[in-house]
UniProtKB/TrEMBL annotation:
Residues 1-23 form the signal peptide. Residues 37-181 form the FAS1 domain. PANTHER family: FI19380P1, PERIOSTIN-RELATED. SUPFAM superfamilies: FAS1 domain. Pfam families: Fasciclin. Keywords: Signal. It comes from Devosia algicola. It comes from the Bacteria. InterPro entries: Adhesion/Biosynth-related (IPR050904), FAS1_dom_sf (IPR036378), FAS1_domain (IPR000782). This is Fasciclin domain-containing protein. Gene3D superfamilies: FAS1 domain. SMART domains: FAS1 (SM00554).
Amino acid sequence: MHITIKAMAIATLLATTSTAALAQMSVRVGGAPMFDNKNIIENAVNSKDHTTLVAAVKAAGLVDALSGPGPFTVFAPTNEAFAALPAGTVDTLLKPENKGMLTKILTAHVISGKYSDADLLAKAEANPKGFTLKTLSGDRLQFTKLGSVLYVVDESGNAAKITISDVNQSNGVIHVVNKVLLPK
């Protein structure tokens, strides 16, 4: 079988392109690939598990901020997490007159800086009683490791489990959580 230089060059180009494309895709969230060369908003809008979060971010006017350079660490509640809130809560928060409250809740899910799962676990292991980080809202989130699971606890005492970690973005990282974190 005779392989020409041209055929080898094409095969090499295809292999390199496929490898580069795979390297940019870190994980799938809500059925959609998340690309580490896209920002938080560019990726989040494609996740079918985060349509409520995306609608809330738009209603709060935070799209530009979360599209900015960051870096940010976002704890992203799923649609199920929002659905677990008392009936009518999401609809009430999405009303224009409640934009301030919505903004406070959403920014209570964001920390300045990029904290990987390994970073958070290392801090939790070094601090068995937990440790806290300040959010963009000015509130604090406590991180506690129970067994092999890392939990995020809001100021109201609600514990959220990180269900998907290290969804890398061009401007930070997303960790998917199963609860909405509520500031006091």
